Amino acid sequence: MPSKTIKYHFSKHVLKKRRILILYMLFSSTSSFSQIDSAYIQSFDQEFSIRPYVYKKFTTLSTEINEDETEYYPNTPVGMGFGVTYKKYSLSGGYSFDFMRDKNRGKTKSIDFQYHYYGRSFVFDFFFQNYKGFYREDDKQEEVFQIYPDIRIVQYGIFSQYVFNNKKFSYQAAFNQSEKQLRSAGSFQLGGGLYYNNIQSDSTIMLPDNKLNNYQISISGGYAYTWVIKKNFFTSLSVSLGVNFGAKTISDFGKKAEVSPSVFPRFSMGYNGKDWSVGLSFVMNRIYVLHNNNMPKIALGTGNFQLSYIKRFDIAPKFLKHIKKELSQKTGFPSLRTE
């Protein structure tokens, strides 16, 4: 009996610590202690900001037969979100409203989680999508849509790249606007990703047994550049090209792996005022889950549009400072920062 009691209290203590750690990770950026060139990158003076934004997430399906390409789209509404940032700690969330969906494009059931982390030296992208129900535009008639309720897509993925010129080029300035790019600069980047894809269709798409499973490993490289225009305006473009190795099962990688291309573009533009900013961003990761000459080529495109407005304040609410202090004390970690 005593051993069970000890085990129970230990598990409860571990679970409590784990919850605190997860909350701490959600509320903060991962640390990076690399130095920056202050002639190129500058932090804002204000320590607290709010960010209302509108966004649209999507996962598209593309099939190509004899160079004839067909695009299938989910009917997902525009979403609205709100974020809070205190120094380098951020928390945000959003929600899509069903009444903003166009009923003429059919019904789509979806779960779409995307997290794009822009650190000093590394960029991380996490994906989880589950979509059922797609449509495509009629080739001959405008505002006429063909509905395909049988198409279902499930995708898990993680993508990461190392930013070489991180002392002068800032992804945070380009896509989060948590700091400011003072001079135009760019950087080479190198990385890769891991993916699992599942596509199901009763009759719309030609698939063996009406489904397709696919695991992929990618290696990619590219370049990112931000143009600073008259100090406060900017536009940024990043493109990474990759080679993906895919197979139906993990054990098939050494036997029947297929090689396919991939591309991951990012674009942003915006304006930074003294205590406010506005920005527009777009990201899309396109991979081929089937790239065989004997079968239709099938590609998935996962992405997000976002329009943000940021308002900065000199003084943060007291409860945010209290939360930060409590998390630091309970987890035993020092305050995290990025530079």
Helix content: 10-25%
Structural class of the secondary structure composition?
mainly beta
CATH architecture: Beta Barrel
Number of domains: 1
CATH topology description: Lipocalin
Give helix and strand order, one letter per element, not per position. Answer: HEEEEEEEEHEEEEHEEEH
- CA distance, first residue to last residue: 52 Å
Largest sheet: 10 strands, antiparallel, barrel
Query: Which regions contain 5 or more consecutive residues with pLDDT less than 50?
Result: 1-33, 333-339
Estimate what percentage of residues fall within beta strands: over 45%
Strand order of the largest sheet: 2-3-7-8-10-11-12-13-14-15
Number of helices: 4
The CATH class, by name, is Mainly Beta
* Oligomer category: single chain
Number of strands: 15
Shape: globular
* Radius of gyration from CA coordinates: 23 Å
Overall mean pLDDT stands at: 83
Short description:
With 339 residues, the protein is mainly beta.
Task: Report on this structure.
The strands form two sheets. Strands 2-3-7-8-10-11-12-13-14-15 form a ten-stranded antiparallel beta barrel. A hairpin with a 3-residue loop joins strand 13 and strand 14 (276-290). It has four helices and 15 strands. The protein has a single domain (34-317), classed as Lipocalin. 15% of the residues lie in helices and 56% in strands. The chain is globular, with a radius of gyration of 23 Å. With 339 residues, the protein is mainly beta. The longest helix has 26 residues, at 2-27.
